[in-house]
Design brief:
This is 4-hydroxybenzoate 3-monooxygenase. Its EC number is 1.14.13.2. Helix 1 packs parallel to helix 8 and helix 8 runs antiparallel to helix 10. The protein has an eight-stranded mixed β-sheet. Strands 8-2-1-12-19-18 form a six-stranded mixed β-sheet, with helices on one face. A three-stranded antiparallel β-sheet has the order 3-7-4. It is α+β, with helices and mostly antiparallel strands. The chain is built from twelve helices and 20 strands. The longest helix is centred in the last third of the chain and has 23 residues. It folds into two domains: 227 residues, 3-Layer(bba) Sandwich (FAD/NAD(P)-binding domain); 122 residues, 2-Layer Sandwich (D-Amino Acid Oxidase, Chain A, domain 2). The two termini are 38 Å apart.
Length: 390
């Protein structure tokens, strides 16, 4: 096959880039190693910044988002037996929308297929070649055959374990990372949310987060040790721990119901620089991962490909190379802002060392200052809803 832009990975980044290119009259092919059913149902992030919502609406993908997305104008912080609301919209004029990553993916797939776009599911990219030439090649395995996709550019949106980043020669990329000594135990429960906005709870037993995916489905998280085994967490133990960490405000209780899914996810920070080499451009989890505390992962991926969409449009329309040349530098400004915010939220809300009471007092002091200082609260709100420019 021949196309203009070959895209590896059909997550939000790869699909959105294909959608943006189509709107500019640029052809693309998306290769995805998993099945369509898998990518449309894998539960990942669920918080969209204002800029991500604006992008979806501006590109014709806002109908179902506006019907089913849950607009939130604040978040709640719980600590020391108290509850405090950060009024994000009042402080910034912007908001977040809770709309699951799998729903964004469904909308993008439907839009691309309706427009005649090519998405090959169960097509595993095995290697990239010719990246230094005007016609790089994506080699992939599809329906039992070895195939080739020839293109002008390759964009790797295939996540941390994909083949795209490893196609860059040794010594070109620089990696910055941090591994946290804890993980998140996340559950999806058939229980109506007992709150209208997200609750971030700092507790002596560890962090907890109360979120939601719809008016009928709750998404909840517990901080657990990094080496924890999910088999040690039967449903009743999960609910008991959630009650302990979240029901710290008199008169409030969470709603419980059947747990539909549960998994443990390690927390880490990871950035690779640069995000481009020759005719290969990298986006999303292929080059940066953030702790989920700041809700930045999917939003960063969409911001990456929004830059690439403009850059490819300029190249194909006028032969301009400046936006492509500046892609990595421009994207990394937002990436590192999100890294710092996610690290800050993670460090303030999680028990980093259960045996250190001094550290716990510092965290409480930081949270109290945050909830009493309009300037500090505005900083959190600006970062959480997404800075328009960085």
């Amino acid at each position: 096959m021949r196309t203009q832009v070959g895209i590896v990975g059909a997550g939000p980044a790869g699909l959105m880039l294909s959608h943006l290119l189509h709107r500019q009259g640029i052809s693309s092919v998306v290769l995805e190693s998993r099945s369509r059913d898998y990518v449309e149902h894998r539960v990942r992030a669920g918080v969209l910044e204002q800029g991500s919502v604006d992008l979806l609406r501006a590109t014709g993908l806002g109908d179902r988002l506006d019907r089913e997305g849950l607009r939130h104008e604040g978040i709640e912080l719980r600590f020391d037996g108290e509850s405090h609301r950060v009024a994000m919209t009042e402080l910034t004029g912007r908001a977040i929308t809770v709309y699951g990553q799998q729903e964004v993916v469904k909308d993008l797939i439907a839009a691309r297929l309706a427009a005649g776009g090519t998405i090959l599911f169960s097509a595993e990219a095995t290697r990239l070649s010719g990246l230094e030439s005007p016609s790089p090649v994506v080699h992939y395995r599809y329906e039992g055959r070895d195939e080739e996709l020839h293109c002008d550019f390759v964009v790797g949106c295939d996540g941390f374990h994909g083949v795209s980043r490893s196609a860059v020669p040794d010594g070109v990329l620089h990696t910055y990372e941090r591994t946290y000594p804890f993980a998140w135990l996340g559950v999806l429960a058939a229980a109506a949310p007992a709150v209208d906005e997200l609750i971030y709870a700092h507790h002596e037993r560890g962090f907890a987060l109360y979120s939601m995916r719809s008016p009928e489905i709750s998404r909840l998280y517990l901080q657990v040790p990094a080496d924890e085994d999910i088999a040690d967490w039967p449903d009743e133990r999960i609910w008991a721990e959630l009650r302990t960490r979240l029901e710290t405000v008199p008169g409030w209780s969470l709603n419980e119901g059947p747990i539909l899914e549960k998994a443990i996810t390690p927390l880490r920070s990871f950035v690779v620089e640069p995000m481009q080499w020759q005719r290969l451009y990298l986006a999303g989890d292929a080059v940066h991962i953030v702790p989920p505390t700041g809700a930045k992962g999917m939003n960063l991926a969409l911001a990456d490909v929004a830059l690439l969409g403009d850059a490819f449009a300029a190249w194909y329309a006028d032969g301009r190379t400046d936006l492509l040349d500046d892609y990595s530098r421009t994207a990394l400004r937002r990436v590192w802002r999100a890294q710092q915010f996610s690290w800050w939220m993670t460090s303030m809300l999680h028990r980093l060392n259960a045996d250190d009471p001094y550290e716990a007092k510092l965290q409480s002091a930081a949270l109290r200052y945050l909830t009493t200082s309009p300037a500090y609260a505005t900083s959190l709100a600006e970062n959480y809803v997404g800075l328009p420019t960085v």
